[in-house]
Write a structure and sequence with these properties.
Strand content of chain A: under 5%
Radius of gyration of chain A: 35 Å
Largest sheet of chain A: 2 strands, antiparallel
Structural class of chain A: mainly alpha
CATH class of the largest domain in chain B: Alpha Beta
Number of helices of chain B: 8
CATH architecture of the largest domain in chain B: Roll
Largest sheet of chain B: 4 strands, antiparallel
Order of helices and strands of chain A: HHHHHHHHEEHEHHEHHHHHH
Number of strands of chain A: 4
Number of strands of chain B: 4
Strand order of the largest sheet of chain B: 1-2-3-4
Number of helices of chain A: 17
Strand order of the largest sheet of chain A: 1-2
Order of helices and strands of chain B: HHEEEEHHHHHH
Radius of gyration of chain B: 18 Å
Oligomer: heterodimer
Helix content of chain A: 25-40%
Structural class of chain B: alpha+beta
Strand content of chain B: 5-15%
Shape of chain A: elongated
Number of domains of chain B: 2
CATH superfamily of the largest domain in chain B: Ubiquitin Conjugating Enzyme
Chain lengths: 442, 197
């Protein structure tokens, strides 16, 4: 038995602990500390005399634990506890400070615990100090909020057993927990954010697009109810109008770069348009909208780049993700030789080329592994340490299929050539046999 | 497809402050009240040879409006270096490559009005007029004033005045009335028609 924990094992008490001697809980049924009723310690045990745990009191003098050293905080606890419903409407400035102290002295005893002691003072403690720590009083921060009070009014008023929250200045609800400063701040922050969003939304309602002369947010379809933010000026348009203008065919000699890319109002040239459901009132807000949009696009694969098979005219400044997929044109023509040479030194160096293929590290590793395995079963008969058990071609095919399945699961289902297992030569084509085999020539 | 909602809004807005700007846009009657064929009217700017005249401008909205500029040309004859004295074609950048969808029919007509007061003889539409403007401004101004008096003034007259004027020229009143009606009240066109038979 591991004596580290004095708590009685629940399972052992019922006669069924599978861990036996390795159980971290106590298997000593005679240890009286295990039989103490924790509810009774807190004051009330609903089982009363029928309770199977001992209803004995722990002497207070015994508790030489951290909390007792900070007497002042205990005092305050006792004070606040006398208010049954935890309503702190008036003293909201005082109580949070209490709370912070409370949270530091997590071993605080409550009033009820003291009541229990006072009832049977004749009893001596049967516990050692370590055990007392387990029977701590309820921390006010653990009390749940009263949903009725948060929504408006609580019918139980001061008799309510739950915590009645403080008034949130933003949302006007009693939903700030007086004893959880973190939660308070979090709520205030989100509330403030929501309020700002609502304000911006009300302002946005009034804004008209200067092309269709309609209020952008009053348009018939949801897709149209969006603003198009120009990167270099601050004139509002609806997204469909500004996109139409920028993509309209240059009639009667209109210049694409200077006229169509320009703001219809101030004629300042902008290079991109950002869709937004809300209009901004400050530069910072605009920056936030633009940054969020860019971040969203960065997660999407560029369809022109097509995983290295196509060309994207925007190159490195493209907003979309440029992922080079193993086996793609770009991969074969430029990246592989570098990977190849870096993996010459050691197998672990797959990390080194991750810089070349920015986002696709994991799949690259898989690919190299795939190659590695393939090669290890190649007819050239290279013997690697761990492939001695796989020798005939059937196993080889099974292995390849397994890897293909793995790759498919990783999201490579549409990569065509390299997964075509029926044609082994095709697979190896990008690198000629001899070249590929050299580095593995142990 | 023309954005008819926008055109309707534009017409409404423009005709609201017609007293202030003097610019009005109406549907062209002979075209089934289609919103794609309009007539704009601008007063000649003060302190120019065009003062006192009311110039009609024929407006055709292309399918791409407002992403394509409206096609405008003077229906009233006008003597101006940037307006063809024959066809009424207007040489104005915002009606061509400098068009912007934020411009409206009203702002375009205002620009045309501004063009009347500020001719650009170096970039002419009508070379004869431009040459005259540069070489002999007095003659140019006199001609422009005369054309304004002759062609742009008449529209200010009531229908009865026009009838009276034409009857005085020796045409029978019934014929004058029917002819005037057929050309939409244009005195000069009626006269032309009456003379040609």
């Amino acid at each position: 038995m591991l004596p580290s924990n004095g708590l009685l094992c629940k399972f052992y008490a019922r006669g069924a602990c599978r861990k036996g001697d390795h159980c971290e809980f106590s298997h000593d049924l005679n240890n009286t500390s295990n039989k103490l009723c924790t509810f009774y310690q807190r004051g009330v045990c609903s089982y009363g005399s029928r309770c199977r745990y001992d209803h004995v009191k722990v002497s207070r003098s015994h508790s030489s634990i951290p909390s007792s050293s900070s007497n002042s905080s205990q005092f305050l606890v006792a004070d606040s506890v006398t208010q049954p419903s935890w309503t702190v409407s008036g003293g909201s400035t005082v109580v949070p400070s209490v709370t912070s102290e409370l949270s530091t002295s997590s071993r605080a005893f409550s009033r009820t615990a003291k009541l229990a002691w006072s009832q049977r003072s004749g009893h001596h403690s049967l516990l050692d100090t370590a055990d007392v720590e387990e029977y701590k009083g309820p921390d006010p921060a653990n009390h749940s909020m009263c949903p009725y009070a948060a929504a408006g009014s609580c019918p139980r008023g001061k008799k309510c057993p739950h915590v009645h929250g403080d008034l949130c200045p933003s949302c006007g609800k009693h939903c700030l927990h007086p004893f959880r400063p973190d939660e308070r701040q979090k709520h205030m922050k989100t509330c403030e954010k929501e309020r700002k969003h609502l304000e911006a939304l009300t302002l946005s309602q009034e804004i008209e697009c200067s092309v269709c002369l309609e209020r952008v947010l009053s348009k018939p379809t949801a897709a149209e109810r969006k603003f198009g933010l120009l990167s270099d000026c601050e004139h509002p348009f609806c997204i469909s109008c500004i996109k139409n203008w920028r993509s309209s065919s240059p009639a009667s000699g209109m210049d694409v770069k200077s006229t169509l890319r320009a703001c219809p109002i101030c004629r300042k040239v902008s290079y991109f348009v950002v869709p937004s459901a809300i209009w901004f009132s400050t530069k910072e807000e605009k920056m936030e909208i633009v940054d969020n949009y860019k971040a969203k696009l960065r997660a999407i694969d560029c369809k022109h780049f097509n995983f290295g098979n196509g060309t994207c005219q925007f190159g490195a400044s493209c907003f979309y993700k440029h992922t080079v997929k193993p086996g793609s044109y770009l991969w074969n023509s430029t990246l592989m030789p570098e990977i190849y040479s870096s993996s010459l030194t050691q197998m672990d160096s797959v990390d080194d080329y991750s810089s070349h293929t920015s986002a696709d590290v994991d799949s690259d590793c898989v690919h190299v592994l795939f190659k590695y395995l393939y090669k290890s079963h190649s007819p050239l008969g290279m013997q690697l340490e761990n492939d001695s058990d796989v020798e005939d071609s059937e196993d080889e095919l099974a292995m390849a299929e397994e890897m293909a399945l793995f790759l498919t699961l990783m999201g490579f289902q549409d990569s065509d050539d390299e997964l075509d297992l029926s044609d082994y030569d095709d697979f190896c084509n990008p690198w000629s046999y001899d070249n590929f085999c050299d580095p593995w020539n142990y | 497809m023309v954005d008819f909602a926008r055109v309707q809004k534009e017409l409404h807005e423009c005709n609201k402050d017609i007293e202030v700007s003097g610019i009005s846009i109406k549907l062209k009657e002979d075209n089934n009240n289609s919103l794609t064929h309009l007539t704009g009217t601008i007063p000649g700017p003060l302190a120019t040879p065009y003062e006192g005249g009311n110039f009609n401008i024929d407006i055709v909205l292309p399918d791409g409006y407002p992403f394509e500029p409206p096609r405008m040309q003077f229906a009233t004859k006008v003597w101006h270096p940037n307006i063809s004295s024959q066809s009424g074609a207007i040489c104005l950048d915002i009606l061509k490559d400098q068009w912007s969808p934020a411009l409206t029919l009203k702002t375009a007509l205002l620009s045309v009005q501004a063009l009347l007061s500020a001719p650009e003889p170096d970039d002419p539409q009508d070379a004869v007029v431009a040459q005259q403007y540069l070489r002999d401004y007095q003659t140019f101004a006199a001609t422009a004033r005369y054309w304004t008096e002759t062609f742009a003034r008449s529209s200010t007259l009531g229908i009865e005045d026009k009838v009276k004027k034409l009857v005085e020229m020796g045409f029978p009143e019934a014929q004058v009335r029917s002819t005037l009606e057929s050309v939409g009240g244009d005195e000069n066109m009626a006269l032309e028609k009456l003379c040609s038979g």
